Amino acid sequence: MIDWTRDYAAIFKPNRGLCVVKDIDFVDINSLVGLNTQKEQLIKNTRDFLDDKDANHALLWGEMGCGKSSLIKAVFTKFYTDGLRLIELFYDDLRYLSDIIDELRDSEFKFIIFCDDLSFENGSRDYKFLKPLMQGSIEKPPRNVLIYATSNRRHLVSELKSDNLGTEILDGEIHYGDAVQEKISLSDRFGLWISFYQGNFSEYLQIVDFYFKDINVNKELLHEAAKTYATLRGSRSGRTAKQFFMSYKDRIK
């Protein structure tokens, strides 16, 4: 049995239910370099949620390795002492969401349901399980639960050419077919969209400098090696900067 007064995070497992996370991956929000706009948006939304003001379900979407998941964990780290709790729910377990909500509805704490890398493949209608939380049914959605999801897709679902066959242009206006309308309505249920993208080399090097801030290195040589590393990987993301640090921290002097 979870005691939310001393347990701060949990992961849902189908055969065991909510399982306490003892070794939480806390993330310092100040360690996320180059995400000022994204941080401001999610912090404000979360603070409103904790203050019983109107707050939105949030979709963090964009390129891989740009800090979407880290930002959610960092916001949780910032606010867990204020009564915020985090529950990680995997895509395959969305069908249990209604049961989880029932367990949380009467709690004094506020909960973020964290769905990482959320997407729905061709023909999947598993997003229907989000309805009890995002729209409600004859029972109102709980006021103490929000969903924060990350995805590489803005509309959460694969977008095929065949989906657009029903699209028409009438009097200069685009009228989408049913398949596209359904996909757009799914992402529209998230009231807050936060986009992520790779920065330029200057922004990438700022992240590299943050990781190496406590190591005395030749900055010019460091940047040269970091650029080469990013070029070979075809990525200038924060994840690439961290991987460069892990690979080179003991080699660059």
TrEMBL record:
Pfam families the record matches: DUF815
Alphabetically ordered keywords of this record: ATP-binding, Nucleotide-binding
Top-rank lineage group of the source organism: Bacteria
Signal peptide: none
Listed GO MF terms: ATP binding
Coiled-coil features, chain-numbered ranges: none
Official protein name in the record: ATP-binding protein
Source species of the chain: Campylobacter gastrosuis
